[in-house]
Write a structure and sequence with these properties.
172 residues, alpha+beta, 7-stranded antiparallel β-sheet, 3-stranded antiparallel β-sheet, 3 helices, 10 strands, 41% strand, globular
Amino acid sequence: MFRTCCCADDGTGPKVCRVLHNGEETGDIFTSDAEQLHGYSAVNAMTPREREVEVMRLQALVTDFLKQVTRGMPCTYVRDDGLASDMIQTKYRIPKGIVDLEVVSPDDVKKAEVTCPLALIQDIFTFIEDGHAVFGDELVSQVESAGLEKELLLMIVYAPKPAMIIKLLVVY
């Protein structure tokens, strides 16, 4: 269920990090060069007091995020029926059980327009990292025409059933 990171440094370049799941490599590899890690301190370079302060800072950050996202965060949901896309001003939230990500119905805030089980998320794409190739020129054009920032475009890919893949698009 939980993933860990294992980094190796041969001294010739940036560290190479592999994501492990239950001790097995997932195939996810990334580098930990200075640009990617700007603003972060290596845990092994911290004093015990610095580690304690960092843990407290991260716990406060997560707690604050969970408080906000439980109440709901504003977003624009891109509802796509295969023929056309609608841009709907609404909110996304993660209810207290922290099991699902919900896009709130714009007609009834107590109902979810979309419910995405967090455990079924297969991938998350952002425009900044993945660009036009993932989102397509038509969708990016629609987002820009609606006066929204394409850089805030997010696609969550999840599979509620084995042969069924759903792409949830939001602009946050």
